[in-house]
Design brief:
Layout (H helix, E strand, L loop, with lengths): L1 E10 L2 E11 L4 E5 L6 H8 L7 E6 L2 E2 L5 H6 L2 E4 L11 H8 L6 H14 L1 H5 L10 H13 L5 E5 L7 H16 L3 E5 L3 H7 L2 E6 L2 E7 H6 L1 H6 L5
Parallel strand pairs: 3-8, 3-9, 6-7, 7-8
Antiparallel strand pairs: 1-2, 1-4, 4-5, 9-10
Helix pairs in contact: 3-6
């Protein structure tokens, strides 16, 4: 579904991505793990058109995304849940969800998706008219995911969905990711919790200083001695 080939990105004099190659097959969960500054978020932002590549190719369902505007990329079916949630704090939960469908005009289907989000996240339904800025961190993360789903994406990209959440809420978020994937959603996931991400993912890539250092199935990377030592804290 998503293919990245020989992708290079520069920030001024910094070579942030150095010829990376990766694929996200339809219906799968693919995760990117690595230290801060490894290029994980830059990869997602480049796919979305928020960062312009120096060279290389990004294709989605056979169509090039390079040079396209972010709004056009979203309309093709790619949505990102950004790091830090980025909900609209002065709007209600319902208004945030409605904004997720801003590019759509299929009103009946929008109502169906609103009901689906409320079923996935009953807490959001309970807080429908509450300002998003007054929600807890976990509730804001649920809202960010729900808002992304309202665009009815074909590929959902998630940047550190468990960041700053209590352990019990982290498990809730991973359960939701698993559930929406089982319903057919393709997911590209960046996650600081490498163990949880690899246990969930069908395939994973380890990024180090802008390069793909390792790749394999989630289980293969969990068993890799280097991954276990550097990213899982095991001796």
């Amino acid at each position: 579904m998503l293919k990245i080939r020989d992708l290079n990105v520069h920030y001024g004099g910094i070579h942030a991505l150095k010829g990376i190659n990766l694929s996200v097959p339809e219906g799968r969960i693919v995760t990117l793990i690595g230290a801060n500054g490894a290029g994980k978020s830059t990869t997602l932002r480049t796919v979305c058109g928020l960062v312009k590549p120096s060279n290389g190719e990004i294709s989605f369902c056979g169509e090039s995304l390079v040079g396209q505007k972010t709004t056009a990329i979203i309309k093709k079916g790619i949505t990102m849940v950004p790091e830090g949630r980025r909900v609209f704090p002065d709007l209600t939960v319902h208004e945030n969800l409605v904004l997720g469908a801003y590019a759509r005009h299929d009103h009946k289907a929008i109502e169906e998706d609103m009901e689906r989000v409320n079923t996935l996240f009953p807490r959001l339904k309970e807080r429908r008219d509450q300002l998003a800025g007054t929600l807890s961190g976990g509730e804001q993360q649920m809202l960010a995911v729900g808002r992304a789903l309202m665009s009815r994406p074909r590929l959902l990209m998630m940047d550190e969905p468990s960041l700053g959440l209590a352990p019990v809420l982290v498990q809730d978020i991973f359960n939701i990711i698993h559930r929406i994937n089982n319903e057919g959603m393709t997911i590209l996931l960046i996650e600081q919790n490498a163990k949880a991400a690899l246990e969930l993912a069908d395939y994973g890539y380890v990024l180090e200083t802008g390069c793909v250092a390792l790749s394999g199935t989630g289980q293969e990377l969990l068993a890799d001695d280097r991954v276990r030592k550097v990213y899982l804290g095991e001796s």
